[in-house]
Amino acid sequence: VLHEVISLTNETFDEAIQKPALVKFFAPWCGHCRELAPKYDNLSTEVTDVVIAEIDCSVFDSICDQQAIEGFPTLKFFFEGSNYNYQGNREVAEMKSWLQKMKLPMFEEKSDEELKAMANESNVVGYFVLYTNEPLSQFEETFKDFKGTVVIGAQKAEKTELVAFRESKKVVFGDDFTDREALDKFFAVNTLPTCPVVDARNFQALLMSGFPFVMLSANLSEHIEMQQEFKDLAAQNDKYVHALLDSTIFTRFIEMLKGTQEPTLFVIEASESQRAFSRLVTGSVTETYQQFMKEFDEGTLEPIEIQVEEPQEENGKRKMIKMINTAIFGGLTLAGVFAVWFACKCIRSGHKELNIEPLEAEVKEVAEEKKEEEEPKQEQEVEKNEEKKEQEQD
Prior knowledge:
- The chain is an alpha/beta fold and about 400 residues long.
- The protein has four domains: about 5-100, 3-Layer(aba) Sandwich (Glutaredoxin); about 105-190, 3-Layer(aba) Sandwich (Glutaredoxin); about 205-300, Glutaredoxin; about 315-370, no CATH class.
- About 40% of the residues lie in helices and about 15% in strands.
- The chain is built from 14 helices and 13 strands.
- The strands form three sheets. It has a five-stranded mixed beta sheet with strand order 1-3-2-4-5, with helices on one face. A four-stranded mixed beta sheet has the order 7-6-8-9.
- Helix 2 crosses helix 4 and helix 12 (about 315-330) crosses helix 13.
- The longest helix has about 35 residues, at about 360-394.
């Protein structure tokens, strides 16, 4: 039997998710959605025990609002009354493997060696162990929202406790399992490296960890001792997420934060306002860091006025939209990621002083321009996919 992606509507959505179902929430003008389409088609032919479906949010927006969809494409797996966001690579093998794991119990008894191998396979720096003598099924409900997002196993022990093993460091969860915010932060911080070098692939995870995000910006090929000193500070302080930023590569991003090529500390709040602050490193990075973070904790720092272009004129407006769409549909530069993230936050937070409007019609227009450029490639992918289906039918 040849399987295919099922298109859902307002009328068919609720019935479809009663079974194990992976649903793609998309918009036809979204470049990443079009890029995913042929892979998603292939996934539907390889997975037979899960409904592979999609719903067009530009048509059935009430369903997408109900599911709190904030970006496209979003992949959600509906299983046994719960739903889980897929956040991995959008390749057929990875999506298929994730679906298989999601149908298994949250906790299975695993040795440290098995968990280390699973962490390496998932390209994460750490894994988690639930030590307990209690029945594992009683923890399923408490931890279900973390299913598929962390590498975790169970081991027998008299005392029930949750432990993270991150870069050879053992971290014990010290709060109650009913404290959801504490669990969120514990899992978030212990799946990230202690002090990675920022790039476009890890920037969003660092930015949205739920902790203040502290960066040392410097020429990383020159300031070797300063980097090590900053890494030592990061290892001693788990109140913040830390990272190194190469000032010779991400010049546009540093300009947006009104920084220079000189060694500088930046911190971005984890609160709703998510303001940014900076401090030029003078003398020891330890002394600068300690004073800077003391003032940050006390709330006495002046925030940076982020340099986001105001679309007051038609040309400026178009330029802003093109910049955002380049980041979304084209090369995902660090400046592009931050520009989109910051602009969206401003819109949602009601920062009217920036004169940024959610210009949906014009965003779609720019997206259509991109679509015209990519259409020939898309047609070739469709033809290849159809040929493959015909071969499978034969």
